[in-house]
Write a structure and sequence with these properties.
CATH superfamily of the largest domain: Butyryl-CoA Dehydrogenase, subunit A, domain 3
Number of domains: 3
Number of strands: 9
Distance between the termini: 59 Å
CATH topology of the largest domain: Butyryl-CoA Dehydrogenase, subunit A, domain 3
Structural class: alpha+beta
Oligomer: single chain
Number of helices: 13
Order of helices and strands: HHHHHHHEHEEEEEEHEEHHHH
Shape: globular
C-alpha cells in the first residue's frame, strides 16, 4: 500500500539534498533559509499555478516580499555566496517566475547599481531599491541582438548638454511592464562604447509593451521597450558603466544565479515526480514499485546532486574571491543541460498528467526552457569555457 500524502514528506531525504550540502551553512544561515522556505510555501506556491496560467505577475506579493527582506543577501546583509545560491534555488523550487522576478530586480538591476554606481548614486537610490519601494529591470537584449549584443548594441546614447538622449529598442526585459526604473545599456555615439543609464519608466518617450503568448515563465512580464528621444541627466549615467566590460561584471554574477535556478528547477521536478510515483497506482501497485520509474527518479536526483555539487564549490570559490567568468559559464551550461533531462524525465513519469499545469510538472517542464536560454545560451557558455581551456576563441 502506498504512503498517504502526509507520509511522503516523512520518507528519507524529503528535500532532495541527498549529500546534505545545506549542512555546510552555519546555524543562523540554515535557520534563515528555513524561514524563507516556509514563507515560499505559504505565500508563493499556493498562487503560482494560477498566475502562470493567467500570464500575470502577482504584484500584490511585493510588499510581503519586502517584509521578508532578502534583497542583496551578500553585499548588504553579509551572507555567504553559498547561502545566496541555496536561497535562489529555493525561490526557483517554489516558482521559477517568482525567482526570475528576484533575479532581475536583485541580481541584474540592484547588482548594476551596487557594482557600477558612484557612492553618491548608491546612497540616493539603493535604500528604496533594497526595500522594494521601487523596483527595477535590466535592458540589455535587443530585438536584433542577443548573444552578440556586446559588439552589436544598436540602442544609442548621444550627449546633449548636461544630459543624454537615448534612442532604440530592447526586448525580453523582465519586470519592465510595472517597474519603477530600468537600467538601459546604450552605445555612446561619440566613442562607440556601451554605457549604462538609470531610466525612470515614467520618462517621456519610454514605453514598454508586454510580450504575449509565451510558453515559459508566463508569470514574468517580459516587455518590448521603445526609447524615443528619452532624455536623462548625467546624474543618471551610472558612473562605473562605461564599456561592455563593466556590463559583464554584472552578468558574471547573475549567470551564477541562473545556474542555481537550474538546481532549483531539478529539485522541483524531483519533488513532484517522487510524490506522484509514490501516490499514483498502476497495475495494482504504486508507480514507484516499477524499476524503470525508480531509475528515472534516481537519474533526476543524480542530475540535481551533481549540479548542486558544482554550484556549492563555485559558491565557495566566490567566497574566496577566485571565481572567474569561465567558472560561471561552465556551471550555467552544465546545470542547464542536466536540468533539461531532469524535467523531461519528470514529465514522463507523470504521463498525460504531465502536460497540464494542475499537476505542476507541466509548468516546471516549460519554465526550464527559458532557463536553458537566458543569461547566455548553452552554446555561448560552452564556447566561453572552451576559449578558457584552449586559448582560442570560437566566436567574436
Amino acid at each position: 500500500m502506498a504512503p498517504s500524502p502526509a507520509d511522503v514528506n516523512n520518507l528519507p531525504y524529503p528535500d532532495g539534498d541527498f549529500f546534505a550540502f545545506e549542512q555546510l551553512l552555519g546555524g543562523a544561515e540554515r535557520d534563515r533559509l528555513q524561514e524563507i522556505r516556509e514563507w515560499l510555501a505559504k505565500e508563493v506556491k499556493p498562487i503560482a499555478g494560477e498566475y502562470w496560467n493567467r500570464a500575470e505577475f502577482p504584484q500584490e506579493i511585493i510588499p510581503k516580499l519586502a517584509d521578508l527582506d532578502i534583497v542583496s543577501p551578500v553585499r548588504r546583509q553579509g551572507h555567504s555566496y553559498l547561502f545566496a545560491g541555496l536561497m535562489h534555488a529555493e525561490l526557483t523550487r517554489a516558482d521559477t517566475s517568482f525567482a526570475t522576478f528576484m533575479g532581475v530586480h536583485d541580481g541584474l538591476f540592484t547588482g548594476s547599481i551596487e557594482l557600477l554606481a558612484s557612492e553618491e548614486q548608491k546612497a540616493e537610490w539603493l535604500p528604496d531599491i533594497y526595500s522594494l519601494k521601487k523596483t527595477g529591470a535590466f535592458g540589455l537584449t535587443e530585438p536584433l541582438g542577443g548573444s552578440d549584443v556586446a559588439g552589436g548594441t544598436r540602442t544609442t546614447a548621444e550627449r546633449d548638454g548636461d544630459g543624454w538622449i537615448l534612442n532604440g529598442a530592447k526586448r525580453w526585459i523582465g519586470n519592465a511592464t510595472f517597474s519603477t526604473y530600468v537600467v538601459i545599456w546604450a552605445k555612446d555615439v561619440a566613442d562607440d562604447q556601451v554605457k549604462g543609464f538609470l531610466v525612470d519608466t515614467a520618462t517621456p518617450g519610454y514605453s514598454a509593451t508586454k510580450i504575449e503568448n509565451k510558453i515559459s515563465l508566463r508569470s514574468v512580464e517580459n516587455a518590448d521597450i521603445t526609447l524615443n528621444n528619452v532624455r536623462v541627466s548625467e546624474h543618471f549615467h551610472l558612473a562605473g558603466a562605461n564599456s561592455f566590460r563593466d556590463t559583464n561584471k554584472v552578468l558574471k554574477s547573475t549567470r551564477v544565479g541562473v545556474a542555481w535556478q537550474a538546481v532549483g528547477q531539478q529539485l522541483a521536478a524531483f519533488d513532484v515526480a517522487r510524490r506522484y510515483a509514490v501516490e499514483r497506482h498502476q497495475f495494482g501497485k504504486p508507480l514507484a514499485a516499477f524499476q524503470l520509474i525508480q531509475d528515472q527518479l534516481v537519474t533526476i536526483l543524480g542530475n540535481a546532486t551533481s549540479s548542486m555539487s558544482m554550484m556549492v564549490r563555485l559558491a565557495q570559490m566566490e567566497d574566496e574571491g577566485i571565481a572567474k567568468d569561465e567558472h560561471s559559464a561552465l556551471a550555467k551550461a552544465f546545470t542547464a543541460s542536466r536540468m533539461r533531462e531532469s524535467v523531461a524525465l519528470g514529465r514522463s513519469i507523470l504521463g498525460g498528467n504531465g502536460i497540464v499545469t494542475d499537476y505542476e510538472m507541466a509548468k516546471i517542464f516549460a519554465d526550464a526552457e527559458a532557463i536553458y536560454s537566458y543569461e547566455g545560451t548553452h552554446e555561448i557558455n560552452t564556447l566561453v569555457t572552451g576559449r578558457a581551456i584552449t586559448g582560442v576563441a570560437a566566436f567574436h
